[in-house]
Amino acid sequence: MRSWLFVPGDSARKLERALSTDADVLILDLEDSVAATARSDARRTVCAFLDERRAELCDSRVFVRISGLGAQDAHQELQAIMRARPDGIVLPKSRSGADVSQLDAMLTVCEAECGLPDLSTRIVAIATESAGALFGLGSYRGASRRLTGLAWGGEDLSADLGSTATRDDAGRLTDPYRLARSLCLAGAVAAGVQPVDTVFPDFRDLDGLTREAEAAARDGFTGKLAIHPDQVSAINAAFTPSKAAVAAARQVVAAFAAAPGAGVVSIDGRMVDRPHLLRATRLLERARRFSPSDSSGS
User: Which of 236, 240, 246 is nearest to 294 (CA)?
Assistant: First the structure.
């Protein structure tokens, strides 16, 4: 999934607008974008939206970001949300794989209570929102069969660290947040789940967003969080393999197919080994998902 669009759960207008976007995933938010005093109303709004507009959401997956496991009414909130059958839950402020395991157990109970198939609800954890969470990023492997992605965020981490900003005057991430980004990427890959890059806060700066999304795709992220519908197209484009990349990947696959058992092949005078084959295969898998016509053929 390339684009993960946050939609405030307390705004029926914004929820309706989200229906017209091309976001791969809608994250209906009950946490940071909703005032604490409005969360009960937001919960009802989100559930009603899911119940009433389910048929129109077939092209997007719908996740709900809950208030968090530490919230006083966490179980009641989860029960209410699960009755509306979201595709997944976004877990904020996750500290380690143990938090994902705890949410897994809660979802198992809720699925049984709501008559839903076991393991039908996925989990994405936002895994860098405290200093301690950075040290837990190696613990997600095997935490839950539901876990489908790890994302990272800097604002809560900034508050925990006591820093005054996450970016410098040129808009570049500062060292603590580049570290969090890299650890999230490595932790997700080690866990065998999708690495999802954080939001780009200036939703009017689409050129800056494009540069950041392309850099994330270059480094190994396969999707990015969005805070505004106008960001979705740029994110989708950045994480959809280009025709040139698809052609190069096909060339690598064809070269190894022509030399069964070879560990290294030569392509246009360049030596290519098995890691290149794995990378090419993964790229073609993504291309088949998001641009089938570009990835077809030999």
Answer: 246
Q: Which of 241, 254, 258 is nearest to 295 (CA)?
A: 241
Amino acid, single-letter form, for residue 179: L
Counting Cβ atoms within 10 Å, is residue 201 exposed (0-12), middle (13-18) or buried (19+)? Answer: middle
Residue 35 pLDDT more than 60? yes
Which domains are assigned to the chain? 3-238 (3.20.20.60), 243-295 (no CATH)
- Neighbouring-strand partners of residue 29: 8, 65
> CA nearest 120: which of 61, 65, 76, 73?
61
How far, in Å, CA of 166 to CA of 141, rounded?
Answer: 28
168 CB contacts (<8 Å, ≥6 apart)?
A: 174
Over the stretch 130-180, which tens digit does the pLDDT of each residue have?
A: 999 999 999 999 999 999 999 999 999 999 999 999 999 988 999 999 999
Q: Measure the CA–CA gap between 77 and 270, rounded to whole angstroms.
A: 56
Give Cα separations from 24 to 40, 61, 148, 208 (angstroms).
27, 6, 14, 21
Instruction: Give the span between the Cα atoms of 119 and 143, in whole angstroms.
Output: 13
| Spatial CA neighbour of 166 closest among 138, 128, 220, 132 | 128
Whether the model clears a pTM of 0.70, i.e. scores above it, the answer is yes
Tokens standing for residue 255: 């070269």
Q: Pull the structure tokens for residue 223.
A: 């999707």
3-class DSSP state of 177 = helix
